[in-house]
């Protein structure tokens, strides 16, 4: 059974990604990488895995529909590969594996998907109901713009979701491990309803695949991701966390985020 690791990357460093590739380097595990157009394409290598850089390269802006377009691009490129991957795993270039290649291949059987769901906050509907005209503004860095856009939508009584009122909006982490059947549902869907939105990368897949909700209390555990939101937004694991990460290695977490020091990965897998 073959796996496609879908990587959303940016920046001028790729050392963490290279270590991730080193750990999962296997003839049955390939990497599809999208690297933000603003940065030089990195040089990463593997002995056994195939590495594909997807085109076209997009200018990714946090909180905008460029993230949805990037995920869709990665899914389509990998799905249409003649290798017919059974599982598709979305990570960032700052994620690290928590399974070695042998355990990874044994854990995933291609019969079920892993997607996180969390409780919708009172503002979640405004992410897709309102119209956000810009795909070039990082709303996290420009909260005033966000307030202006929301206020304008309220005054104009805009509700883009009215035509989809029978579709429940769901939310969760944007990282996932999906089986082939569920990926096909995504790439065959009309994603334009999620464009010109706010942080809808945390909405569109959960909304398209509501049947994957296992109603657990830990949305990151549902997605097999080890993420700490108590110590950061999210917390960036340090060398002092080696023992913590070793305890969850080769268990029920496929990846941890986020990591900036490749030596940490080496220590965890030492």
TrEMBL record:
One of its GO terms (molecular function) is metal ion binding. It comes from the Bacteria. InterPro entries: Glyco_trans_14, XYLT. GO terms for biological process: chondroitin sulfate proteoglycan biosynthetic process; heparan sulfate proteoglycan biosynthetic process. One of its GO terms (cellular component) is membrane. It is found in: Endoplasmic reticulum membrane; Golgi apparatus membrane. Pfam families: Branch (PF02485). Keywords: Disulfide bond, Endoplasmic reticulum, Glycoprotein, Glycosyltransferase, Golgi apparatus, Membrane, Metal-binding, Signal-anchor, Transferase, Transmembrane, Transmembrane helix. It is a single-pass type II membrane protein. Coiled coil: none annotated. The lineage of its organism: Bacteria, Bacillati, Bacillota, Bacilli, Lactobacillales. Its main location: endoplasmic reticulum. This is Peptide O-xylosyltransferase. The keyword Endoplasmic reticulum applies.
């Amino acid at each position: 059974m073959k796996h496609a690791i879908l990587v959303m990357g940016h920046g001028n460093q790729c050392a963490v990604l290279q270590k991730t590739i080193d750990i999962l380097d296997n003839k049955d595990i390939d990497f599809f990488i999208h690297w933000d157009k603003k940065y030089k394409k990195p040089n990463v290598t593997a002995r056994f895995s195939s590495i594909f850089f997807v085109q076209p390269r997009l200018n990714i802006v946090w909180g905008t529909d460029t993230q949805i377009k990037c995920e869709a691009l990665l899914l389509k490129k990998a799905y249409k590969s003649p290798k017919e991957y059974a599982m598709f795993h979305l990570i960032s270039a700052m994620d690290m594996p928590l399974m070695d290649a042998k355990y990874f291949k044994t854990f995933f059987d291609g019969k079920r998907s892993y997607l996180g769901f969390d409780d919708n906050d009172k503002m979640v509907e405004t992410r897709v109901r309102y119209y956000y005209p810009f795909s070039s503004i990082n709303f996290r860095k420009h909260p005033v713009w966000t307030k202006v856009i929301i206020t304008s939508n309220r005054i104009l009584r805009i509700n883009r979701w009215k035509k989809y009122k029978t579709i429940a909006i769901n939310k969760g982490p944007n990282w996932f491990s999906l089986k082939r059947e569920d990926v096909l549902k995504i790439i065959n869907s009309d994603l334009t309803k999620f464009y010109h939105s706010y942080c809808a990368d945390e909405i569109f897949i959960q909304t398209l695949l509501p049947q994957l909700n296992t109603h657990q209390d830990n949305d990151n555990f549902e997605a097999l991701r080890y993420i700490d939101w108590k110590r950061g937004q999210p917390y960036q694991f340090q060398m002092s966390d080696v023992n913590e990460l070793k305890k969850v290695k080769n268990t029920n977490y496929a990846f941890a985020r986020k990591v900036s020091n490749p030596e940490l990965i080496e220590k965890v897998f030492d």
